[in-house]
Design a protein that fits this description.
Layout lengths: L7 E3 L14 H11 L6 E3 L2 H4 L6 H25 L7 H8 L8 E4 L14 H11 L1 E4 L6 H6 L2 H5 L4 E4 L9 H9 L10 H10 L4 H4 L8 H5 L10
Helix pairs in contact: 1-9
Length: 234
Amino acid sequence: GRYQVIEGIMSPVNDDYRKKGLVSARHRIAMAKLALETSDWIRVDPWESEQETWTETVKVLRHHYNESLRLLQSKEEFMKNKRPTERSTEDSLSYQHSVLPELKLLCGADFLQTFKTPNLWKEEHIKEIVEKFGLVCISRAGSDPAQYIHGSDLLTKFQHNIFLVKEWIQNEISATQIRYALCRGLSVKYLVPDSVISYIAQHNIYTEESERKNEGDLLQPLKLHSTTVNPLND
């Protein structure tokens, strides 16, 4: 009851991230849109994937937050210019009591562990993410997010802004395992929407060849972040 959720944003990573087996953003966006056809609150935003190079997560968050502020300001300007006779009581109340939106990064609990991977994150970026934005972490089997937080001074300091969500009905479907099944010609029906399965078959996306894409490459953040200091100093 603390928040009113306005929307969820799915932001596919840029091709330049160089993750092994990462297929073209064009296909990932198309599949995400198909998967979200039945959702009335989650949308796919291609901005991150359309940049010339990989964009650091904190910069993606800044972009979407600024966009939400811009939309709010546009709405307020529209309401301000409306003639009093055109305003409903509900519109007037929402205009008078408008609050600044918040943006939080939704992730699986194991995501917290990546903060300790040398050179993957900049410490100032981790701090900005947990302090300014905040995290919503969904539990995953084999991950102990509370322990990850306790083991980091920085995460402990801002733990009030890290929301741990217990998934009472656990869903252990793994994107990696689904790709492996597709490579082996096995059925993934009921694991992903039929429309996505049809798209994958039509474009022959997940194959042994595609799984070898970027093989041997370093992830782009590991190339760019030269520091060798553990960002979360235990």
